[in-house]
Fold each of these.
Amino acid sequence: MISLVVDDSRAMRRIVRSILGSAGMEVLEAGDGQQALDVLETHLAGGGDVPVLATIDWNMPVMDGLELVGALRRRRDLRGMSLMMVTTEAEQGQIVRALAAGAHEYLIKPFSADDMLAKLDLLGLAPVGAEA
Amino acid sequence: MNAPLPPRPTTPPISSVLGRTAPTTPPTTSATTRPATSPGTRPATGSVARPLTSAAPARPATAVPARPATNPLGSLPRPATGARTTPVAPVAAGLRAPAGAAVPPVSRPGRDALPPADLAWVRELVFAQTAIVLGADKEYLVASRLLPFARTRGHGDVASYVAWMRRSGTASDHREVIEAMTTNETSWFRDGEPYTHLRKHLVPDFVRARSTSRTLRIWSAACSTGQEPYSIAMVLRDEPALTGWKIDLHATDVDVTVLDQARAGRFSQLEVNRGLPAPMLVGNFTRAGAHWQVNQNIRSLVTFSQANLARPFPPMGTLDIIFCRNVLIYFDTATKRQILARMKAVLAPDGYLVLGSAETTLGVSTEWEKDPRSRASIYRPIPGGTR
């Protein structure tokens, strides 16, 4: 399974990649929303599968996470992709905005590996044989 | 309590627990080109937490701080203070349950259970490997979580177990301690199957069977800080077929401290991060300062009270479903048998008993049969016996 990790912090990308890797996923990375679209384009053009998941930071340069969620949700070819915001934005109104824009899940930083794996569970992306 | 379920408000779709808000088809196959940035084989968790052994754990049990953590014990934005920020669920709740005097020979994880040096060793081990900070006041939690492992390894109490760990434990033995202290057993919907089964099968069963009384009585028997009964309440409230029904949701725990938090329905940011679907969070909670408060329409469905499972149950009428997850493990077989018999006596003949995913009535009682529709540990009473 392929996933896409979008965060302008390299350290955070590495952490998320490690957690998703433990769930058996391969990971594409991007540092902002525009780069995410570019990386995705290249990946798909090369015959890669549609990622099953994108974890998306909110506050990033060039194109922020909310805009990226909107852009991804407008794409018919990416319908199989779960979108999870992973951000320090913790206000209720922000969560509502993200869900309204098309995010499926929302994880607030800081979080533990278990928290993220629990979200994968909710999205039906838990690795086979993983504990419930 | 006893509030008839009001009509559903216009909240975001809550089908997710259990009906997933996620896209329907994760269409990947394994025949993919490995991307250049791929971690290759499973990445080591070293970037997050140093593994104890070269065989890195399958799941990095680690806290991910919002900012780089450079700090020593006590200043991480993690469960530094208060059991509230640690995953307290049936495991811990169960531990509290047998704390009453009536439960020999389970040793009580009391306040004096662990010498300070042993507690410090556990805290340092957990911090070094996961960056999770256990407060110095977490002795009770430590003792609670470790008790089942102490028993499994034949130690009379947790102090003896920790002393042995320090003296002779290998790195993989240590992993057991770390996992015991960091695993979330039942934060919200984490162990989703019982809730899925509730929604898909049990509710429809009772909608038919109780169509006259239109009343559902449920007991969460070791509710800890309230995640289980509130999760149940959210599922039931989201069921169109139960609109207008009377819901009696009883929730008990032996520990009055956790009951206070449960009753208040206030949860930290860390707590709501654990297994609670985002649409349910924004649909059923209101942010209040640094906390999230369960909305009144959900709280009003649940009545909390103190109860020790080893003693007579409080009067709750005839129950339709009992949730008793990850609790029985803390009792000896004779007490378990006795608890199951009394649960059967208060459960309707067509009612259900929901145990923890690794629990079974096998070897304890012959008066229960597993619900064949579920992989989870969901049981029905067999007619006759002690009824």
Note: The longest helix of chain B spans residues 193-209.
Amino acid sequence: MSRLSYRFLLYLLPARFRAAHASEMENLFAEALHDGGRRGRLARLFGWFRGAFDVVSLAVRLRLAPRRRNKPTKRPRNTMDSLLQDLRYAFRNLRMRPLFTCIAILTLGLGIGANTAVFSVVNAILLSGVPLRAPEELVEVYTSDGEGGYPYSVSSYPDYVDLAERTDLFSGVAAFEAFFSRLETEDDTEAVWGEVVSHNLFSTLGLEPALGRYFVPDEGQTLGTHPVVVLGYNFWKQRFGSDSSIVGQTIRLGGLSYTVVGVGAEELQGFTAPGFSMDMWIPYMMLPSLPSSGNRELLTARNNRSIFIKARLRPNVDVDHARAALGTLSIQLQQAYPDEWEGREFNLVPTEDVAIHPLVDTVLYSVAGMLMTVVGLVLLIACTNLAGLLLARAAERKKEIAIRLALGARRSQLVRQFLTETVLLSLIGGGAGLLLAHWLLRLLVGFQPPIPVPINLDVGIDQTVLVFTLCVALLAGLFFGLLPALQATKPDVAPTLKDDVGAGIGRQRRFNLKNGLLVTQVAISMVLLLGAGLFIRSLRGAQDVDLGFSLREAGIVWTMMEMSGIEREEWEILASTLEERAAAIPGVEQVATAEILPLGVGFQTRIIDIPGVDPPPGDDHHEIAFNIVSPTYLDVMEIPVVAGRGIGEEDHEGSTPVVAISETAARRYWPGENPIGREIVTPRNERTYRIVGVVKDTKVWTIGEEYRPYVYFARTQNPTSSLMMVARGEIPEAQIVGELRRTVREVDPQLVLMDSKTMTEHLSVMLFAPRMAALLLGVFGLLALVLASTGLYGVVAFTVSRRVREVGIRMSLGADQASVIKMVLRGAMALVLIGAIIGLTLTAGLAQLIAQFLYGVSAIDPITFVVVPVVLVGVAFLAAYLPARRASRIDPVEALRSE
Amino acid sequence: MTESAPAAEELDRYLPLKAQWFHILLALSEEAKHGSGIVRSVLDQTDGKLRLWPATLYGSLEDLVALGWIEELTELGERPAGESEKKRFYRIKPSGARVLTAEADRLQALARAALDRVGSGNLAR
């Protein structure tokens, strides 16, 4: 493959040289690649480029500086040679106009770079993954949620076993789910992420370890007997310094020793989602031994659904057949387990059709589509810009072209020459774009979303991205080159040769290609800028949304007691000790705890019964979002009590179980009545709680959501393993965080710190998406504005330069400066206004599409729709005014003498 | 090395020698070699730091032949036995050897001057 492409490249060299050395050069190149090949694929790729560059530079040298003693060849001998002649000509042309060349390369570089950067991210998230063996045979199997429920939900372990044992569709059925545990070393405890996997997951997918081995069938047979672990490559590298003697050693995980049997492949991050770099994998049979999971029913309870299933179809089984067979199995399961399986069925999706998960995919694809559209538009502006510049240049070269046509050059030859030049330009621009993208991606990789999971997206520029960039560059070159090339080589030889420049004025059409380009540019810039404006306003909107709780500075730490190996009986004692110790930190005034904080990651609900209130149709119970809080929580979070009282000191283990509910819950379940004194029941543990108060609503999961029913339980009456401590005081929040961490360590060094952050950081989670959107669109919108206004400036300046004589005549006939400026401006601004109106209309038409991404702002936001057009038209005015003013200063005598 | 003055003057035009020319001449100073042999020698000479890529190599070889510093072995009897005639062998000519020597002298003088100024002990430290 590489050899063939090299042979092709050699055609760049002069025929004589090729005849003498081609075959030896090919052999040498193969040797060089072979030497480099031992150092990996990347080295080979680099070697290829190095070799290609080597040939191209020699070709340029030999062709551009032909030896004197070689007789110059008059006529190109083959297509390749004539292409090279075109290239040489193009190079010379570009070198002769360094300013134009620089502007063109910069413009293209920005446009292509933006596309490459965005595409790299899309590629990393949606398109690439670990290379799997025969991926076309792989399928994902989901279990649907009840009747008419979500079709792609997780499955239970017994379902997985049935799938493997009761069908003969698959050559392998594998399962996995994520887990969370603590790694214990002599002096430290650290939270780690991993996946529990069926022993055959790696072999079913066809993966090879970097070191040691993956799991063997024995390790998937009996509960708890094989504490073995495969480390993730990154974890191994960072935590163990790539120590290859790690295989055979043991690590302490959740109070148990595990033997390291292998290290995963370098490209393998995990199976749950791209970017989530898993620290380790352990066999499913060890799941019940993890402290965070606690009970042994995990692998036997059919209603405990938490696992993902991947399977490999037998070679002679197709997807439709498998679907039908799974339908039969679903019916059997529905009959055998009516409680757990009513209305459910297995759903099978080919793995190649799923990027992450069918639910997530649709969202990601729409975001990716939007981003690609935006950068595509930026590139379009860049291209129209260059097309405009080229048209201007073509007009300058009209005479040269006319002479060549008159001398018998074919039009196709001239067009080819034009295109060679633009494609060359766009390839160089593509190179610049790659550099820019590389730099942008470096920035992006350092950008960690504010969640407690390490994201490690491999957004490098790989072969797919290179091919993409090459295609974009070629297309751009053809696009912005073709129209000017056709326009410029229109054969109207006679008038041009007659030096009939003045005749141009009378014949100028009102709406020519150049004007069309300008209108397009302004329209696209308008769309992008309006988009940017909307997202910036949306960011403001998101920041201004009333969340229902205090945004004041605070420190937050999060620990998990069960995972830390602490018995349930001790949770409450430890929690109150932590609370007391935190309150004693100098400078800290208020401390509260909650099971979770609103607007974090995660959303929990509880099943409740409400005497006298029927559950929603089709359900046996109500489902309600909840929290378990300390008596101080409502105070510290500044959530006002509307009626009754909040959770208080008087609610302890022995007293009547109580809850406080949100206003929305009160309205939903007891409309027009007083809920205080009523009861709710939690059917799972059959406890009855009395409602003692109603409090203000807060946002729970996202800032965009409607307020939802919410219930607060008392921590003292409902011990909780997850404990988030919020502390507020006179000292800065970052300092409080540090103090809280120290306190936790002092109270119990075994406590796993899941996360520690300031309130500001916590809130930034929800602002992450609007912030990114505003940032990206803002940057791209600005880029569009800059490109469009330089384009406008260029076009107006050029038009003016063509009208020098006309201006001279007008001025010598008595026109003053102002009227000349007005005349030039009128023409330009008419085009700008047409473009602006098209852009406004387009954006308004897209409003429905954009609206889904916005917070607290209408998609036709009046402020945006006034400010942006004013700015755009203002900038356009300036871009047109500068050359117009220059025109007005023309000395009429000079002007008339010109030409 | 004692070279006659006029010859040295004439050679001075080409000094300092292009790195790839120097290494090719050096490689050919042992014995006649073909392309792959030269690449290997140069890799050896430079501890693997300088790889002559094919176009650079053959471009340079043509230049050196044109300058008259090296020549291709065209007579059958001159070529090493047992080698395919498809491989082109090159050998250094006296003028090439002179250039090589002149460049080596230049480098030596340069190195000596540098060592005199900073002292080899200082450098090591």
Note: The beta strands of chain B are 33-34, 70-72, 89-92.
Amino acid sequence: MSKKSRSAAITADRPPPKAPQAAPDVKTKAAVAKREPLLRRVLQIAASLKTTVVLLLIAMGLVFFGTLAQVGNGVWTVVDNYFRSFFVWVPLQIFFHPTQTVGGGFPYPGGWTIGFLLLTNLLTAHFLRFKLSWTKIGIWLIHTGLVVMMVGEFLTGVAAIEYRMIIEEGKSSSTLFNYRKTELAFIDVTDPNTDRVAAIPSSRLRAGRTITDSSLPFDVKVVAYYKNSATRKNGVDGSNPATAGIGREVQVEEIPEVSGVEAQQTDDMPSTYVELFEKKSGKSRGVFLVSTRYSDQLVKVDGRSYEMSLRHLQIPEPYTFHLTKFTHDVYPGTDKPKDYRSHVHLVDPDLNVDREVEIYMNAPLTYRGKTFYQADILTMQRDGKRGTVLQVVSNPGWFMPYLSCGLVAAGMLFHFGLALTRFLGRISREGEANS
Amino acid sequence: MNLLKHYGTPLLIAFTLGLFGLYMLGSAVGTDVPLQKYDGYDFATLRMVPIVEGGRLKPLDTLARTALRLNNASEVFEDADEKKYPAILWLVEAMSADAKNDSRKSLIWTAETFKIDNDQLRNLLALKGHSGLRYSLNAIGDKFDVLQAETEKASQTSKDRRDLYQTKLLEFAGRLEEFSRINRLDIRAVPPQTPGGEWESLADRRKKYSTQATEVTREKTRAKFALDKVSFDQLPKDQQKEIQSWSLHTYDEEFERLRSQDVQLSRWLDLIQAYRDKDAGKFNQLAGELAQNAEQLSPEDQRALKLEVFVNRVAPLFKCIVLYAAAAVLALTGLLLTGWNRELSPPFRWASFSLIALSLALHTFGLIARMYIQGRPPVTNLYSSAVFIGWGAVGLCMILEIVRPLGIANVVGASLGFMTAIIAHNLGSDNDTLEMMQAVLDTNFWLATHVTMVTFGYVATFVAGFLGVLFILLGVCTPVLDRHAFKALGGMIYGTVCLATLLSFVGTVLGGIWADYSWGRFWGWDPKENGALLIVMWNAIVLHARWGGLVKARGVALLAVIGNVVTTWSWFGTNMLGVGLHSYGFSSLRMWAIIAFLVVMSGVITVGLAIPLRSWTSNGEQFPKPLPDRPRAFNRNGEPVAAS
């Protein structure tokens, strides 16, 4: 077969060439395009499918890097740095095993940048390219669903808060803890009737910084802050920064965050070393160790007493959960958990609520805009008593993924179903042609 | 030649189905290793005895097979003369092994049933490498102290810092522990006294009586020899000896008295003794009595128990390896023949299609039996995901073959069936594959919807990817891709990618809904979720690239092949992140298998990308010799028109 007919055969697969008379028309169109205003050209690029493909590729890269990064970092650090950010510095370290140290990195667009660009691409495409026709209903549904999903994830990213409520069996609680946020709290306990609290969020606890609070008679100079820490096994040695308080007896060292790929997700235990300076005299009261690992310490300045602690952010709630009973079943002969169940007596005087509720795996309780999930079992080290750990979530955008999922699934079913019907029609026509 | 033309297809189908039907039937009727041979011991009854392990009810047979497979990497073992024995015999041998009474000549001491594939570990135990790398208990037995000391050291190193030797050492220690657990009868074989109660371990019962007997003996000895008044140490030597032998005797008597009141424990201890005494009659009677424990179970549990023993024996999912391999060979032969002599191709194509159907029937039986025994939807762990991916892929390919009878989907279906069966076999080698689920996963609804859907997404992505591989290889190397096949295969890949997008998207989102339902977080960006998201995004990229005209048939095929890599990452890669690649090293079979797969895929992509379409052996142009059973002419849209 000659070369000519070969290439002719290849093109046969493609759509038929335009009729000759149409050719000049195409040319003028191209010529017009060249003269088109810059804005229009930019919009065309913004709306093009090429841009979609490129953006999706970049997004895949981000998701992949964000997965690898979880070997060395906690999942929330990665979420904040990679997925809920505009730009991220991707260290080369993530491509290597943690025992090998590799420097350097490269900048990469973060989740918000990519999400915003994809959203722009989608919206401009619909304004510029798409026509409203019933065959395109599927695409419209899918894309609307995706917009809802992206907006929903954005909303979750900025507005959703996760707390935890911890109750010992037989005891009550009306406090929620935010385990992702820590604060250095000074509680003025001089007056036994009222506690005045001054709290410094952990984001301000940067080494070298001095923090002044008008309600405190002393300044706080941060010597060190560890996101996660462990008590030194070898005890205290010359490297101990502390000169006062419990820090003289115990020393902590920084350890890596709890890795995102770890099967057993535990909490980070932050610690900080702070030096207190009296405002009046400028005199140092020494360097203290304040840690979530250790209990409160009392500091007396100017005749007032302050309880100093590093604690998870606490939110008081107007209702009380009393854990009447906690059950924890395992599969016989194993320690694999089969079921956790919290029997809670819920009392809310404001709303005249006084009832029994059961919270267990896959059966959460929604109350006052927050949802309570059975998350974990708590075993007290001191007396072996048990308790429950409830995950508490408030997410104003919780319904958006559901909406989005429904839209996209319906759209895909419609669109691909349409394509399938056409295809099967063609097959049957071919069959007729064959016979 | 004429005969072959007219009767070739039915003949080859009949021959293939007959041959492999017999292969299947043979194991269903007979037994894997004949059980009756062994001096009249009724192992067939013994293996029906119900026990509880890993939180679930199972027959003793499963424990025997799991434990032997763990140590021996096989469910049968051989003695020095290469005579084969079943797992249940190994279990009874392991139960009756006794270093004191035995002169270490029994089967359990002499048969080579402990596989040690790490050379440093062999060095430690002073073992010479030989074929099979299996060693007898006699060979290891003298080095227990060294082993224990080394294990102790290794276990103090934290998990992620252990090197390969330490990992393997601890693995081996774990396997020996499984043996010793059986040896000391730490098996929950005592049914609950009251309904809903717990199954008790034989070892616990024995320990209880032993403690009681010790207590009673101490009291009796004190009373008889008036040890309150004189200290034992101050007595003369011969009197000390007398007291010792008297108390030993008393202990034995007391223990016998206590345990003989316990019917269940006694049956087991007597059964083991009967085996040691080579008293087959008594052994069989006791085995029968123990098997009657099943009668107090619910009818469903009894049925599940019987079914499990049957499935263990038939091993349908293991047999699928052979069946799919044969089907793949037939399918590939048929496909390659199209390029040479088209008339010879249909018999092979149809024979392979029938064999695939037969294998799928067996595969389905295995899958449904597992679901029935476990009372769960099909996918509950990595092993079952491999079984299910194979099943789905074969099913999907059969549908594709019916829609587009090119013989290509046959090849893909049979090879995916074969590969996943091999993967499943290797994944299931070190534990009970019907393990129980963590509390949060203990929900049939989400397992049935989310997990099944995501796994179907993997299926469709893999099928599209392997169709892509065939597209490139057939086009570059063979004359098979004529105009009709080129177009049809291209369409098949595209359609499958569409299906994959739908399934993986819906599956992933259902996972999000489950997560939201379970702990209030729709999307947590954890590695497994991200893996699923990557599949969805990749499929979306393929579709958009095609719609945007960036790629055509070849491009879609190439992108679909990359889909294989993305899916493999999601299936295995994310799991390996957690366990730490380091301690697994690059020596584990799984790691090498994945690397080999990636290399092959990159090779295919490179070939498909580097060689331009016009240089391919076949690239969709008109085949020189049009087929009689295909339309002879096409219009310029490439659509067939009736031959004039």
Note: The longest helix of chain A spans residues 400-434.
